[in-house]
């Protein structure tokens, strides 16, 4: 089938979808992609996936969005794909309706995480519920990475239950593997760390919603009990976001050399080898990748007890769950693991087994291919 995947961000295209697009191409599909312009477009093209760029943005920009919608509808009219597959809310809103206007019969959407968290006030929450209803309405098949999101979609009548399928999320468990830990000393030396320093890591965009302020506050508490500990923050600043964290916010915690802000890195699989514990104290997630990657590498994880994160950890077996927005409990959970190397090893070994059972991305790719096969059967 001729398949077009659509996302607003070229970063999502590169880091969330590229392996899936390669798999679908290997299965014989004619795979193309559409995204906003950006530095990762050429890398996706170099991997053999044609990419068409349009003026798509993640932020709300009404005039630009109208132009992007028209350009997208015209592109779909010209290229006539069999399937349009959208990702993220903004791409769904524009892409699903553009595909409807262009009379593309097979429209698929992946829910990477519903935008509204559980603690949102009812009036505001229902606004987002209606937005989700509108954007998903044209879709014939809706795939959800998160099982809790499926229940929310059914309960709030966001979409026809007959359209819904569980997708899950996955990673390359061959790339993220315990054998990487053999490089521990070399990776630590490259960061200026010694073999015996406790190292805690967090991977994600530097935003309040990701829980970075709680992470920094927990690190400040842990310095009193673990004075040689080092805390890694791996991810880019995004100053244009409403919940952006700036350099002054970080300096206010007084962490000094104990905090290493590494920015965006393509060698995150190596960086896991330098860690003793991975944490993700996020406020809201769809189905986060970093806890899966850490578990596959053989690391224990500390995450918040929120939708999405709950699906990446077996509490007490592969890691620990703590309440969101609670730096004291976060610090306590991390400190307990730093003080217990046997528990870290046991959780790491169980985490690898969990990754093999649930987080292998090939399981996800097969479910996408099955959805397309079912649509092809309907067409015949």
How does this structure look, described?
With 380 residues, this protein is α/β, with parallel strands linked by helices. It has 2 domains: 2-170 and 361-379, Glycogen Phosphorylase B (Rossmann fold, 3-Layer(aba) Sandwich); 178-358, 3-Layer(aba) Sandwich (Rossmann fold), CATH 3.40.50.2000. It is 44% helix and 16% strand. It is built from 14 helices and 13 strands. The protein has helices spanning 10-26, 41-46, 62-79, 89-101, 122-136, 147-155, 184-190, 212-225, 247-251, 268-273, 290-297, 327-338, 341-358, 361-379, and strands at residues 2-6, 30-35, 51-53, 83-87, 106-111, 141-144, 164-166, 199-203, 230-234, 259-263, 277-280, 301-304, 319-322. The strands form 2 sheets. The protein has a 7-stranded parallel sheet with strand order 3-2-1-4-5-6-7, sandwiched between helices. α3 packs across α4 (89-101), α4 (89-101) runs parallel beside α5 and α11 (290-297) packs across α13 (341-358). The longest helix is centred in the C-terminal third of the chain and has 19 residues, at 361-379. It is globular, with a radius of gyration of 21 Å. The relative contact order is 0.12.
């Amino acid at each position: 089938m001729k398949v077009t995947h659509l996302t607003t961000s070229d970063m999502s295209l590169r880091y969330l979808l590229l392996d899936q697009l390669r798999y679908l191409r290997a299965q014989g599909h004619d795979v193309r992609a559409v995204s906003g312009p950006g530095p990762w477009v050429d890398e996706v093209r170099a991997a053999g996936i044609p990419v068409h760029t349009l003026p798509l943005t993640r932020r709300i920009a009404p005039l630009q969005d109208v132009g992007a919608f028209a350009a997208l509808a015209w592109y779909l009219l010209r290229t006539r794909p069999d399937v349009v597959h959208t990702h993220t809310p903004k791409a769904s809103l524009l892409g699903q309706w553009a595909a409807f206007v262009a009379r593309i019969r097979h429209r698929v959407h992946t829910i990477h995480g519903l935008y509204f968290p559980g603690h949102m006030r009812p009036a505001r929450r229902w606004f987002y519920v209606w937005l989700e209803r509108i954007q998903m309405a044209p879709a014939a098949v809706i795939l959800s990475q998160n099982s809790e999101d499926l229940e929310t979609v059914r309960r709030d009548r966001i979409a026809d239950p007959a359209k819904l399928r569980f997708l899950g999320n996955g990673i390359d468990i061959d790339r993220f593997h315990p054998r990487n830990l053999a490089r521990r000393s070399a990776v630590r030396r490259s960061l200026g760390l010694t073999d015996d320093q406790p190292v805690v890591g967090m991977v994600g965009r530097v935003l309040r919603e990701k829980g970075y302020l709680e992470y920094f506050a927990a690190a400040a508490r842990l310095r009193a009990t673990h004075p040689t500990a080092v805390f890694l923050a791996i991810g880019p600043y995004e100053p244009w976001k409403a919940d952006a964290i700036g350099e002054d916010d970080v300096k206010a915690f007084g962490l000094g050399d104990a905090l290493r802000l590494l920015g965006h890195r393509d060698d995150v699989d190596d960086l896991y080898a330098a860690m003793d514990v991975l944490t993700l104290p996020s406020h809201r997630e769809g189905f986060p990748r970093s806890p899966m990657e850490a578990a596959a590498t053989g690391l224990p994880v500390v995450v918040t007890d929120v939708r999405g994160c709950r699906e990446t950890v077996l509490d007490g077996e592969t890691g620990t769950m703590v309440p969101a927005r609670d730096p004291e409990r976060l610090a306590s959970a991390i400190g307990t693991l730093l003080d217990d190397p046997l528990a870290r090893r046991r959780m790491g070994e169980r985490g690898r087994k969990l990754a093999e059972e649930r987080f292998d991305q090939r399981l996800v790719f097969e479910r996408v291919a099955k959805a397309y096969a079912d649509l092809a059967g309907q067409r015949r």
